[in-house]
Amino acid sequence: MKIFRFLIIQILFLFCYTSASHAEVFGFKMNNQSATDTNTFVSPFQKDNERCFKCHGQSKYEYTNETLGRQVKELMYSERIVKRELFYNSNHKSFSCTDCHSEQYLKFPHAGELRMEQKYNCIDCHGGDEKFAQYHFEEIESEYQKSTHFKLEEEGFSCWKCHDPHSYKITVRNKDNLKETIAYDNAICLNCHSNFDHFQLLTDKEEISLIQKHDWLPNQATHFKSVRCIECHTKINDSIKISHLILPKEEAVKRCNECHSQNSILMASLYKFESKAQRRDGFFNGIILNESYVIGANRNEYLNLLSLILLIGVIGVIGIHIVFRIRKNNKTY
Amino acid sequence: MYLYPKWIRLWHVLNAILFLILIITGLSMQYTDKENASYIVGFATAIKWHNFSALILTINFIVFVTGNLLTKNGRYYKISKENFLNELLSQLKYYSLGMFKGEKHPFPVTEERKFNPLQKVTYVLAMYVAVPLLIISGIGLLFPEITVSKFFGISGLIYTDILHISMGFFLSIFMLIHIYTCTLGAKPTSLFWGMISGYHRDDEHQS
Fold first, then answer.
1. Which of B27, B32, B151 to mutate to probe the A interface, most A CBs <10 Å?
2. H helices of chain B, where?
3. Which among A122, A152, A153, B28 is least surrounded, fewest beta carbons within 10 Å?
4. Whole-model pTM?
5. What range does the domain containing B153 cover?
6. Which of B30, B128, B145 sits opposite A299 (nearest CB)?
7. ipTM of this complex
8. Within an 8 Å CB–CB cutoff, is residue B116 touching chain A?
């Protein structure tokens, strides 16, 4: 009985113990900045950029209204705010604002026609550049053009809807905290798909029904924090690191077996970067176990074998017992 | 001899049906594959049936424990420490040798002793150790947010799952042996009829 009590206490301890990460079980962090991020980068253009950040770096700006002859305080339109700390942590942190924007912006008030300036897309800078060859931007562009998002280009869709050039940074290689990467990447999708202000710019639909549309998914909250939207909503492409071919909703993965199986698609998507470093303790797709657990994908070959041997053993013993019973009955009669 | 009151028989038949559903759906989830989308039962269907059956099984287990506490049935599960090992070996010896030599049952069924020592141990282990562990680990898998997120560097869910499938496996083996030993009555079917009618015949071996 002491062993029994000890077992129960151990089990209760396992379930009662909750780690700090449980605070983030539900919902996504929209501005997911790692707490360990310390920005030590000093931009060679910091001084130049400050001319822009002075007004665009926060929600309030001030200027001298020469007509009124006094200082005027105004609120900055939220879509035009670029946070310094996000920019200087982003992939484009070493840029000057005027590398991408017209130098005419240095004049204030800005000329009205500047609003119409043609914005660069990723491929404009990254295409055909050997330095970026490993990222296969051309393949990404080709996938994007086949994706369901591309159909919305007329409505104003572009790379920037998902990858804000002022704050975007690659996170998928953040092996220390995959959950943080998942939350960051999903926040990109939710920026439109859970924010009606952004959503309505690209569609005439009158509501977002993200939760209801995923009602069929068991343990919805757990799925949302354990995998990225793109796991089910893109077509896997082995030649690029992240698939950009967003599928129409009818073609999204809905078969549980796609992930919940020995040859889970998660190994070609979410765990692509780590799949070569598999665990060797008998678990299929063992690398998933570092962060999560997927029924059907994480079965253990040793346990499978052991259970099969035990089952055959028991059936064997029963079989022998039956044989002896039959022999005894034959002798009796 | 009237040994199995109505509530025990109802509990038992429900438990048997639920065990079968849970084994089939559990295997379907554990061994699902992309190429073989419907391994016995499709994954999505298996999850729904497994969760629902597990809920009923939990309620049924509470009925069993409460029934044993409130009625005399609980006394049949009390294991006496005295001669425990000798009695256990004696029963094992009977099953493996004695019954083939025509020896008499060492622990015949009486109104005071429904189970032989081997039955008592296996039933107590199954119903008071394996089933509670199965239910607790099942709750941990059904509500992963309450399960420890990481333990010794890997997801706490895998420990919970291993505990769950191990208990499920042992209970499946128990069920297999239990069904076989139920054929050891006067006739292979008489113990099954006893569990339906409630009456046990004296000339039977025990399962």
1. B32
2. 6-30, 43-70, 84-93, 99-101, 117-124, 131-142, 156-181, 190-197
3. A153
4. 0.76
5. 6-197
6. B30
7. 0.89
8. no
